[in-house]
Design brief:
alpha+beta; RNA binding; CAF1_poly(A)_ribonucleases; 3'-5'-RNA exonuclease activity; RNase_CAF1
């Protein structure tokens, strides 16, 4: 999935739909793939249950409406692990899943091959049950739409026929609200009696309508009493009356079915019934569809009336519960994968798993530790094929000659399956055979499927997994159907290991939450900034746009010394990370910046940092400030605007010394590189002296020489020891 940025949906979608429709006719693929929409979802789900139950593993793949909501939300080398999680969380919360590929694989020992059952589900977050608040909202990214259209994504099928869903959290909340409404005996949700009890009738038209309705109800009731054995319909004087009042039986009681009235008129009818007729009851019955039925029912006693109201409540509750169950939709697939406890296989799938949690389980936890623990509870066995591609020396070396993208890995490892792939020039061992079965059709020969169609991508992911397992030494000819593949001794050490960031090569263990040692002590990831110390980093934003990284390094180095800055990294055009050579430079810089901004003397104008502070919009903080900004659900395109929207300009605590927290050898992955500005208690008592010393430096008669600034800062630090 490419990384793109949000635009107005209507303009981009119309262009994408045009592209999709014009190129759809040119698409010709014989790859057997089960396309599933809301029209055939029930039958497809029943089949999928059988396939998953018999499967050795299930491969998945997702297509989303975008990846990053702003350029600075992308994954950077300077992102600590907890910040990377926050960026993944933001992506999963803001973008939609529009296609979900599920492909169970089962080993057929009689044919010595795997049988794959690829399913391609169109998913759309349609609001099927009433939920407080606005309708579902999500972001699209321009090139994401164009990217999907390029590969003939069917936008009409997604939006019109896509399968909706409720997460477990949404279902729980809907049932809670339903239970509360049911327990409220006066709730107008069920019988619509409460709200009209004291409505005054002031308008002449309302008075005339209420009187006419009262007369007609009296005629109808009197007719029932005169002829208890009759079921005939009351003869009204006009065709309109026949259409609006029809005698029916409801719950074994005579009733009038009311149609053709406005909502205001229905309220007046309720008022008339409640005020003038003790033996008539107004009820609204919710149908299985979105329609409801308005009735006036004759009851012979108060007990009969109470019984009727309970029956109506029970019926409405049953219908509401059925609607909630029907609205669960695609989440049934996720519940199936979770309940079967099968090995789940994805390709670079940490973001996919975050989407699964956010859409189908509940709101993503704010803390990464809680997320990891919860994911492992629902899906105890997950394998990332990108991990496996780097798990074997020989395979890793061969993959270095090609991209580890899904399509490239598939072409390289599965040349006999990817029929359209030409010779790679590499000699590989014999491929594990894979056949495809959809409905009653089973095939081992087909044309190449459509890339970036979730069902086909899930199939490719499963094929890569099978071949990678073969390279790890797993002989499927010896595989027993009763054996849990996740517990295979050659595979289990890679289970639940996922790349949190492919850019950095960071790997986490979902079962423990800890960092996993880089594969083979890996030199595979060549980092531009190999020695990142987060406690040494200052975040600066809002500086004059003319300043570049080199200019900022020069400004800071003139004050703190030529070797004080090890690197400067742009988040975007409005913000940079400055990494110092020593952690104490962080608090020194922040305090000096604050002092300069409060000073009106000539020194503040001629100071080397004056260029950086020009305009009065420059702000700074330590790495925790960056984390706080990333944790906000707001996403402005420019980082400086984001910081302003979050409300962070200057944080005094960023300057305060922090108690050192020594990292243990096996520290939690999420605590790695946590802030570690080591100071002792005596330093706190001397902060006032340091502050005064800096003021003296600014107000004294010092000659403005670069080396003098460096010497003065060093002297201040010496006083602070």
């Amino acid at each position: 999935m490419k990384k793109l940025y949000p635009i107005t949906l209507s303009r981009a979608l119309s262009r994408a739909l045009s592209s999709s429709s014009s190129s759809a006719s040119a698409q010709s693929t014989a790859f057997p793939l089960k396309h599933v929409t809301k029209g055939n979802f029930e039958s497809a789900l029943a089949e999928l249950r059988r396939h998953v139950a018999a499967a050795d593993f299930v491969a998945i793949d997702l297509e989303m409406s975008g990846v990053t909501s702003a350029p600075w939300r992308e994954s950077f080398e300077f992102d600590r692990s907890d910040v990377r999680y926050l960026k993944v969380k933001d992506s999963a919360e803001k973008f939609a899943v529009v296609q979900f590929g599920v492909c169970p694989f089962r080993w057929d020992s009689s044919k010595l091959s795997f049988i794959a059952h690829p399913h391609n589900f169109y998913v759309f977050p349609r609001q099927e049950v009433p939920i407080d608040g606005p309708s579902y909202e999500f972001l699209w990214q321009t090139t994401s739409i164009e990217f999907l259209a390029k590969y003939q994504f069917d936008f009409n099928a997604c939006i019109r026929e896509g399968i909706s869903y409720l997460s477990r959290g949404q279902e729980k909340e809907a049932l809670r609200r339903l239970s509360m409404a049911y327990e409220d005996e006066l709730s107008d949700t069920w019988c619509n009696m409460k709200e009209v009890r004291d409505i005054p009738i002031n308008r002449i038209a309302d008075v005339l309508f209420a009187e006419r309705i009262k007369n007609r109800f009296s005629e109808w009731r009197d007719g029932l009493l005169q002829d208890r054995n009759g079921g005939s319909q009351l003869q009204w004087n006009s065709n309109d009356s026949k259409q609006q009042f029809q005698t029916v039986f409801f719950k074994m009681r005579p009733a009038l079915n009311l149609t053709g009235f406005t909502s205001h008129q229905f309220r007046l009818i309720q008022l008339v019934i409640n005020k003038h007729f003790k033996d008539l009851s107004y009820v609204r019955v919710n149908g299985d569809d979105l329609c409801s039925q308005q009735l006036v029912v004759y009851t012979e006693s108060k007990d009969d009336r109470d019984l009727l109201m309970k029956e109506v409540k029970d019926e409405n509750r049953r219908v509401a519960e059925m609607k909630i169950q029907a609205a669960i939709g695609f989440r049934h697939v996720i519940d199936l994968l979770s309940s079967e406890q099968k090995l789940i296989v994805g390709h670079n799938c940490f973001l996919d798993i975050a989407h699964v949690y956010s859409k189908f389980i509940g709101p993503l936890p704010s803390a990464a530790e809680e997320f990891v623990s919860s994911v492992n509870e629902y899906f105890p066995h997950i394998v990332d094929t990108k991990i496996l591609l780097n798990a074997d020396h020989v395979l890793q070396q061969r993959m270095k000659k090609s991209s580890t993208s899904l399509s490239s890995a598939f072409a390289l490892l599965c040349p006999q399956i990817a029929v359209s792939t030409k010779s790679t020039g590499l000699t590989f061992q014999q491929c594990v055979q894979v056949e495809v079965q959809v409905d009653d059709m089973r095939s081992s020969n087909w044309n190449s499927g459509a890339k970036h169609e979730a069902g086909y991508d899930a199939f490719m992911t499963g094929c890569i997994f099978v071949q990678a397992c073969s390279y790890l030494g797993i002989d499927f000819k010896l595989h027993s159907p009763s054996e849990n593949l996740a517990h295979n001794e050659k595979l289990c050490k890679h289970v639940n290991h996922l790349y949190l960031s492919w850019i950095n090569g960071d790997i986490i263990d979902l079962s423990t939450g800890n960092k996993v040692a880089e594969l083979f002590g890996t030199n595979y990831f060549k980092k531009k900034y190999p020695n990142i110390l987060f406690e040494n980093i200052v975040l600066i934003w809002g500086f004059p746009s003319k300043l570049k990284a080199r200019d900022i390094r020069e400004c800071v180095s003139k004050v703190f010394g030529p070797t004080s800055v090890t690197s400067v990294y742009h988040l975007d055009e409005t913000a940079v990370f400055v990494q110092f050579s020593k952690p104490e430079f962080v608090s020194d810089f922040l305090l000096l910046k604050e002092t300069l901004e409060k000073s009106d003397g000539p020194i503040s104008v001629l100071h080397p940092l004056a260029k950086l502070l020009e305009g009065g919009n420059t702000h700074a903080g330590n790495y925790e400030t960056y984390k706080e900004i990333c944790s906000s659900p707001i996403s402005k395109v420019l980082f400086a605007n984001q910081a302003e929207a979050v409300g962070i300009k200057w944080k005094r605590e960023a300057v305060e010394p922090k108690i050192a927290v020594e990292s243990k050898e096996h520290t939690s992955f999420w605590e790695e590189n946590a802030v570690n500005n080591s100071t002792n208690s005596s330093e706190k008592s001397k902060q006032g002296k340091v502050h005064n010393a800096k003021k003296d430096m600014l107000c004294g008669n010092y000659e403005i020489i670069d080396s003098l600034y460096a010497a003065e800062v060093n002297q201040i630090r010496t006083n602070n020891l």
